[in-house]
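Consortium newsletter contribution from the modelling node. Members have asked for a concrete example of what our holo predictions look like. Here is one, prepared for the iron/sulfur cluster complex that several groups have been discussing at recent meetings.
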Amino acid sequence: MSKQIFTKNANVEKLEPYKRRSALLPRLQEVQKQKGYISDNDMQDIADEFDIHPVEVYSVVSFYSFLTNKKHGKNIIRVSTCASSKCAGSDNVVKAFEQSLGIKAGECTKDGEFSFEKTSCLGMCDVSPAILVNDTLVGPVNPEEVEAIIKACKEGGVLPNAYTTKATKRDGKIIFSKVEAYVGLKKALDCGFDAVIKEISESNMRGRGGAGFTTGLKWKLAAEKQSDVKFVICNADEGEPGTFKDRVLLVEYAQTLFEGMVIAGYAIGATEGILYLRGEYGAFKPALEDMLEKMRQENALGNNIFGKEFNFDIKIHLGSGAYICGEETALIESLEGSRGEPRNRPPFPVNTGYNGHPTVVNNVETLIAVVHIIAKGASCFKEIGTPNSSGTKIISVSGDCKKPGVYEIEFGTSIVDILSMVGADDTKAVQVGGASGTCITKDEFKRKIAFEDLSTGGSIMIFNKTRNMLDIADNFLAFFAEESCGQCTPCREGIPVLQERLKMIQENNCDEDEFKDLFSLTETMADASKCGLGQTAPKALCDIIEKFNNEYTLLKDKKEKEIYG
Ligand SMILES: Cc1cc2nc3c(=O)[nH]c(=O)nc-3n(C[C@H](O)[C@H](O)[C@H](O)COP(=O)(O)O)c2cc1C
Ligand code: SF4
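And here is the predicted structure:
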């Protein structure tokens, strides 16, 4: 193989060893962007630069879908094929691209101009079918616009319906979370870090990223841990199918979010914050950097913030296309320059997090809500919602409805009210919490969004009478099969078996014993998988085959199978 042109990054050598390793992913992203791929020789050179074995570099490159050691086309077009995108017609968009480019998904055109891929949810379900053209999110895409998109790529023109930080078209309402700039931060700095943690604890605020851990307790544990170095990480890896509320918050509420990170840093005694931004939202990075710079100018970041003896700054780290990096320990592994494989817990990040230091990881929405709590008071926050679920929840609604979008609702709002708000008719099923969430039927629509009833990181996917629920389950399983990190057996081996069994059910070729086996496998996966992905991957399938048993027929026994199978 001929030697590729490679420019050594002299700055890397100057970094301390642990910081150097954290610089690996940004370095690989740089080479990927410059050359379109990372060749074997590049990997060898980068290994030399970082003083690690080339196999380690390869293991990182092969983990992330945005990094590749095979030549890509000059332009990469990725079409989202999540369940909501499919409802909106993504299959027709795929067909139109395949026809226009003369290639199948996963291939590259002969002239090297285009690579075309199917991908999981792009966080654009409110404007789906959506695509990612190089770094630009585009949606909705009409099959008739495909030629114009290809032309714009070739000629450097404007992409129709590009979603940018300057021109955002969306439906929905966010009212409650609006707070005047720096009111919360100044109040926090005035009242002292103990009082901040007390206020957050009194508000009963629970994390909005999905797991619902109490924010005040998380901060208290990190604050109590003795260490000169601590970190605040904002989890903006939003990858759960049907979730796009963090995208809107990042574009419209960046200042409040960063303010929340500073408050968290002050409360726990950290001086550094990191925003882990999903790779698909890379186009938002320049605007976010500008906001950070503005806040530095205004002394809301940097040294002696607002005249207090408190220094804090924030940097942005871009992900590289791996859903599992949303899991907080996988995210930390990724930040440390490794494959994003979840860790065993304990130890928890509040004790041993980023580079071994105490670390608080919070969702985008959590950090925005925190500013609201400090600015307006815990009691004001607790007045809204239910006794066990204080405040509001920002939800992403997609699928079969007239007004998909990002809405802020009070905890305790019922599904039936949400369906009426977004103009959903003939709804057969609602998937709450994304592919890893709960699927409910019509007779459960009075259930409420709350930690004690239907808990969700934000995703609400609506399916009407025309949808085949087994196809939806199949779509979710394909997502998990693609995104499992493969580290533990129940998840790695279990998901393909679930897919196989589901196919048998779809083909009316599953007998009752095989059906029972499937449930016993799902229990094993829930019990023995290392992280939330493997533990929750079978959930939607179980819900769907239990609740929609009128959509398939089981063979009575093996004998029947032998005769008719
Ligand atoms: C597979 C998986 C994916 C996750 N993805 C996200 C995500 O995209 N964003 C997020 O905030 N939390 C995600 N989480 C939850 C995080 O691990 C963590 O609980 C959360 O970031 C903590 O923030 P919070 O307490 O503010 O909710 C995910 C968890 C799992 C198991
Ligand atoms: S459960 Fe799945 S995603 Fe999680 S660590 Fe195991 S293999 Fe990886």
